[in-house]
Amino acid sequence: MEEKNRSVPKATLHRYPVYLKALRRLKENGIDRIMSRQLADYVGIESTTIRRDFSFLGNLGKQGYGYEVDDLIRIFSEQLGMNFDEKIILVGCGNLGKALLNYNHWNHVVGEIVCAFDLDPSGVGETSVPVYPLDQISSRMPAGCRIAILCISKQVQKTVDMLVENGVRGFVSFSTDHFTVPEGISVKSIDVVSSIQELVFETNARH
Q1: Are 38 and 15 within one domain?
Q2: Which residues make beta-bridge pairs with 188?
Q3: Which of 87, 93, 121, 139 has CA atoms 20 to 30 A from the CA of 70?
């Protein structure tokens, strides 16, 4: 993928998942062919930008005919080099965790949350997926699951170690606690407070 994407601008690469998400939704709604101007209205990106972005992948459409949705989905999936049907687990069903469970619309791009774990599942309430006790990770881990979303503030390192032992290879972490992972395990930390601080600094610097 790195060699294939080397000549594609970074801004264009960032838009490819947006296109793929839209195309998968269009396919789900029974749309088989689309013009660039129609896709532009759907994703809020100029049609000239869309055509330029598509041009990096070859001659994908025909003038006056548009693009085959199935072909675009296949090409973008190959280009991004990902499995867009990932089984994702959520660990920690507090307010943030439950909000993510209620959202859970990533099936058009990266997959979906298939189950969750919590210290006290009985206190979580009604959810769209099963919620299991945290100490049942080993027995309840979905087959083939590689991605976990962390929304916990207790037993973080112990839980991460258990998840790694059971096949998790990537974490999206909302936890404020520091933890370590073995080499080869990826972690994307989401720090909302730091992001707000950076935004305030940038805003003040410009005014």
Answers
A1: yes
A2: 172
A3: 87
Q: Is 204 within a domain?
A: no
DSSP of 85-154: TEEEEEE--SHHHHHHHHH--GGGTTEEEEEEEES-GGGT---SS-EEEGGGHHHHPPTT--EEEE--SS
pLDDT over 90, % of the chain: 37
Q: Is 203 inside any structural domain?
A: no
User: How wide is the angle at C-alpha 5 spanned by C-alphas 39 and 181, nearest 5°?
Assistant: 105
- Bridge-based pairing of strands 33-34 and 67-68 is antiparallel
Average pLDDT, the chain: 85
Cα–Cα distance measured from residue 101 to residue 103, given in angstroms and rounded to the nearest whole number: 5
Residues 6+ apart with CB under 8 A from 12: 52, 53, 56
Instruction: Identify whether 199 is part of a domain.
Output: no
In the predicted structure, residue 3 carries a pLDDT above the cut 50: no
pLDDT digits (tens, 9 = 90+) for 74-85: 888 777 765 556
> What number of residues does the chain have?
207
Predicted TM-score of the model (pTM): 0.63
